[in-house]
């Protein structure tokens, strides 16, 4: 009696079953999958955040489908040079995807997304009755887009191309030469580009050819997405946005406004607080940068000469280890959890094409991260 859009297995996998058993038994799990910044010991400016939400204006309701002007001005200021008329607020990046899929596709049409990448896309697309096809990222010491495969993946039903910049979990940024090719390709095929930029503020080092945002002058209709969850470490505030660029953006924004008006999902208090939340986010962002950089540096040192190889990452909150193919990824993760109480994610969660990769979050507290990595390397060495 239910829609086939919800026809997904809800049976727990072997890793989640083992994790539940371990926690029920009272085991102390070294969780190297932790991605919630509010749970990793960061010092949040509590008073400033609460004060930003305490204004009496939050008690009055002034529905604005695109978002309150003061909030959109704050987003435009974050990008420097973006016009507020090209900004639309959403409750999250996931909702931004849902709006854009509604805007760009009819049921049964297609969106292209990178592989490997975040596994949520298939579910978001399915809820909109849209098919998700993949194009590969290749690794040869650096990650890059396989444009031949991307072109081959385009069909008459394709309506848009998702770019995750930097990618989750590979941490790879789009390069300027790649953007030029992508922009021209999308424009020539009449496709939109959907750029997920939630980790853009978390680059490791400086490289002049990295693209930090696709917001700006584009040949193809382009939508840049981000929000408070990552750039301010505030996922509980539930505020994201879409920035439109390129041709037809005015018509696109009018249509997005109509979609948003149907839901009016963004809460007034967080919209009013947005300018101040972005203002105090610097200390949170700095702590996350320091944490992820320190854990990545430790990982680089400890994996040298080990059985695990650290793949190059340029930004974000994650690192990828290639481990011996003596076991499958599932077997590695189960062995680590069962014998060493270390939780990591297998590469197939992110659609890695081959074995054997493990994905680690760089957010955990340093002592937890160091001990977890030490145990992981002991297991892979054995």
3D architecture notes:
- This protein is of the alpha/beta class.
- The protein folds into two domains: 12-44 and 280-381, Aspartate Aminotransferase, domain 1; 46-279, Aspartate Aminotransferase, domain 2 (3-Layer(aba) Sandwich).
- The protein is built from twelve helices and 14 strands.
- The protein has helices at residues 14-24, 46-52, 69-79, 93-104, 121-127, 147-153, 176-189, 228-231, 249-263, 268-303, 329-340, 366-381, and strands at 30-31, 87-90, 110-115, 131-139, 143-145, 158-164, 192-196, 222-227, 240-245, 309-310, 318-322, 342-343, 345-346, 357-361.
- The protein has an eight-stranded mixed sheet, with helices on both faces. A four-stranded antiparallel sheet has the order 10-11-14-13, covered by helices on one side.
- Helix 3 (69-79) runs parallel beside helix 10.
- The radius of gyration is 21 Å and the shape is globular.
- It starts with 13 loop residues before the first helix and ends with a helix.
- The mean pLDDT is 96.
Layout of helices and strands, plus pairs?
Elements: H1 14-24, E1 30-31, H2 46-52, H3 69-79, E2 87-90, H4 93-104, E3 110-115, H5 121-127, E4 131-139, E5 143-145, H6 147-153, E6 158-164, H7 176-189, E7 192-196, E8 222-227, H8 228-231, E9 240-245, H9 249-263, H10 268-303, E10 309-310, E11 318-322, H11 329-340, E12 342-343, E13 345-346, E14 357-361, H12 366-381
Parallel strand pairs: 1-12, 3-4, 3-6, 6-7, 7-8
Antiparallel strand pairs: 2-9, 4-5, 8-9, 10-11, 11-14, 13-14
Helix pairs in contact: 1-11, 3-10, 4-9, 10-12, 11-12
């Amino acid at each position: 009696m239910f829609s086939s859009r919800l026809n997904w297995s809800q049976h727990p996998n072997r890793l989640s079953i083992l994790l539940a058993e371990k926690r029920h038994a009272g085991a102390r799990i070294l969780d190297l999958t932790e991605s919630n910044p509010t749970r990793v010991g960061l010092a949040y400016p509590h008073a400033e955040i609460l004060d930003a939400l305490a204004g009496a204006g939050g008690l009055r309701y002034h529905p604005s489908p695109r978002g309150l002007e003061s909030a959109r001005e704050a987003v435009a200021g974050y990008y420097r040079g973006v016009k507020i008329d090209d900004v639309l607020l959403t409750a999250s990046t996931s909702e931004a995807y849902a709006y854009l899929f509604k805007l760009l596709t009819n049921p049964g049409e297609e969106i292209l997304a990178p592989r490997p990448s975040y596994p949520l896309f298939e579910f978001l697309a399915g809820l909109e009755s849209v098919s998700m096809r993949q194009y590969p990222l290749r690794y040869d010491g650096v990650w890059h887009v396989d444009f031949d495969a991307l072109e081959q993946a385009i069909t008459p039903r394709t309506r848009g191309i998702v770019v995750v910049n930097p990618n989750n979990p590979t941490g790879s940024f789009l390069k300027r030469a790649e953007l030029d090719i992508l922009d021209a390709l999308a424009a020539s095929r009449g496709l939109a580009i959907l750029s997920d930029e939630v980790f853009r503020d978390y680059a490791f080092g400086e490289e002049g050819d990295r693209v930090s945002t696709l917001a700006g002058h584009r040949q193809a209709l382009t939508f840049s997405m981000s929000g408070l969850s990552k750039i301010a470490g505030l996922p509980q505030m539930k505020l994201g946005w879409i920035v439109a660029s390129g041709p037809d953006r005015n018509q696109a924004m009018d249509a997005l406004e109509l979609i948003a008006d149907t839901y009016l999902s963004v809460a007034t208090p967080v919209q009013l607080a947005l300018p101040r939340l972005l203002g105090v986010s610097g200390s949170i962002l700095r702590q996350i940068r320091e944490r992820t950089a320190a854990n990545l540096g430790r990982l680089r040192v400890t994996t040298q000469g080990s059985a695990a190889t650290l793949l190059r990452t340029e930004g974000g909150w994650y690192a990828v280890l290639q481990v011996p193919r003596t076991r499958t990824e599932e077997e590695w993760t189960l062995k680590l959890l069962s014998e060493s109480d270390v939780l990591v994610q297998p590469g197939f969660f992110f659609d890695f094409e081959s074995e054997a990769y493990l994905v680690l979050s760089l957010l955990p507290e340093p002592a937890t991260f160091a001990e977890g990595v030490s145990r992981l390397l002991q297991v892979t060495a054995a």
